[in-house]
Amino acid sequence: MTLEQLYLLFLEYPVICTDTRKITENCLFFALKGPNFNGNAFTNEALNKGASYAIIDEEEHNTSDKSIVVEDVLTTMQNLATLHRQSCQAKVIALTGSNGKTTTKELINVVLSKQYRTIATLGNLNNHIGVPLTLLSITEDTEIAIVEMGANHKKEIAQLCEIAQPDFGYITNFGKAHLEGFGGVEGVIQGKSELYDHLMAQNKYIFLNADDPIQLEKLGCYIKKFGFSGDNPQYFNIKFKNADPFVALEFEDMKVDTQLVGKYNFPNACAAITMGKYFNVPATDIKDALETYQPKNNRSQVLEQNGYQIILDAYNANPTSMKAALENFKNMDAETKTLVLGDMFELGQDAEKEHQGIANLASEMGFEDVFLVGENFWKVDSPFQKFKNFDNLKSAIEVSSPKKGSILIKGSRGMALERVLAFL
User: Fold this and answer.
1) Per the confidence metrics, is the pTM higher than 0.90?
2) Of the residues 51, 117, 261, 321, which has the fewest C-beta atoms closer than 10 A?
3) Where are the beta strands (DSSP E) in 73-202?
4) Which residues are annotated as part of the binding site for ATP?
């Protein structure tokens, strides 16, 4: 079966499933493979549960006339996504960056959905599988698709751009994330910038944070840019008011009180405003979208529990986002402040230095009630309480709870520090 023939089949059955636990009637099942699973082995189960066809790449599982054998299932799904993207009228906005991708994507979506029919990446399904799945969810009436792109090594964003062929792009920032895969900060800059490289080569549009010196240095001469400050008429001017704890800002003489914690979320809101303005969303609708959006999934959530004000930022962490969170927490107006910080992953040979740096920063900022947890924080030279694993932290807090007041909880996803909430 050719790709074009498969696409006609997709138009007839436009729902894609890759997990037999989530099979829906008349879907197409793509039998993906990974280090610990082989979707081909579940072909019959998918068909029995209601899939119309199964796309597989192992002949031994071709036991039904509803099976379609291809050379490689993942490549086929990616190529199908590109063909679908080319056949649709929707504009595609791609965004990547070290920090704030998912929040920014959601903000852009709530703003643009005020005036357009939009779709956006679900959660953080932003890799070589998630991007094609997002593109394949574009429907006939979709006007704008917001596609988040994640990467942990060079050339990955370039590949995702070839699949998605974006019309617009935005990089949130360049930070110390996935240093192990990228080979250092310069590798991060090069890898994430593959989005801008693709857009410039295709003469497409870039939304640029003009307050980011690294982005200005790389793209300052490129005329198709939009920023958040400056006197150039191409720029949208947005004023930061405060963040205690929620970001307040002002644009077009309107104050916007968001439910976003921390000054580090200001550029994320600015990106959404900028794109809203570019796509002619009324300013009052932009304001309403930003003020009603509530973070979720452990991303800078503010919770009140048993006399504690909790800043739960436990979805992920790297040295850049950790520093920003500490700076914001330091500037908050609270009588008692406690830090619960977990290990930052994927730092490679920089892990020891970066964890020591965060411990030193917390000390320099004057924090006293600090709980450090994880294999890397366990090794730092610090006067703070250190715990090699979560169970040790749990035991200590159950014996002696932190002082009532504000608590910042932050660590990489693998640390699952939201578990602290259960015993505060």
Assistant:
1) no
2) 117
3) 91-96, 118-120, 144-148, 168-171
4) 97-103
Tokens 């310069």 -> residue? 186
pLDDT band at 222 (very low <50, low <70, confident <90, very high): very low
> Chain centroid to CA 144: how far?
18
User: Vertex 335, ends 419 and 268: CA angle to 5°?
Assistant: 60
Give all domains of the chain, ordered by start, each with its CATH number. Answer: 3-71 (3.40.1390.10), 88-292 (3.40.1190.10), 301-423 (3.90.190.20)
Do the strands 254-261 and 301-305 form a parallel or antiparallel pair, or are they unpaired?
A: unpaired
Query: In 10 A of CB 202, how many CB atoms?
Result: 13
The 3-state secondary structure of 117-150 reads: CEEECCCCCCCCCHHHHHHCCCCCCCCEEEEECC
Is the distance from CB of 59 to CB of 74 less than 8 angstroms?
A: no
Structure tokens at 332: 């908050």
Q: For residue range 27-78, what is the model confidence (pLDDT) as tens digits?
A: 999 999 988 899 999 999 999 999 999 999 999 999 999 999 999 999 999 9
Q: Which two tokens stand for residue 179?
A: 């240093």
Q: Any residues with CB less than 8 A from the CB of 48 and at least 6 apart, and which?
A: none
